[in-house]
Specification:
single chain
């Protein structure tokens, strides 16, 4: 059985493995596109565990951000509050920004 694939250069014959690889890449792109339009990123106010105490990782990162921003650390935040505070401090300090430039 001969297999053919559509490419930017036209139709060409491909092996079973190459076809499977191309299908896998296409599925990964589809999965990624679906994820970007999903509810994977939720508002912290809507988290089912948002009322629980912040995690150790959140507390550690908040400590670092608070020191850089010269602000006090509230050690009694919930997971949701910590997430929002991290976002605020990242914006203030420039950490976690897409361009990677930190504010001084």
């Amino acid at each position: 059985m001969e297999l053919y694939a559509y490419t930017v250069h036209g139709i060409r014959r491909v092996s079973h493995l190459e076809l499977m690889f191309q299908m896998e890449i296409g599925m990964d792109k589809q999965t990624q596109a679906e994820a970007e339009n999903s509810n994977m990123v939720k508002d912290p106010k809507n988290w089912t565990t948002g009322g629980e105490p912040m995690t150790g990782a959140q507390k550690s990162y908040l400590k670092t951000l608070s020191e850089e921003a010269h602000e006090d650390l509230d050690e009694n935040l919930t997971k949701a509050e910590a997430s929002e505070r991290i976002n605020e401090l990242q914006e203030k300090t420039g950490r976690g920004q897409p361009d990677g430039n930190q504010k001084q």
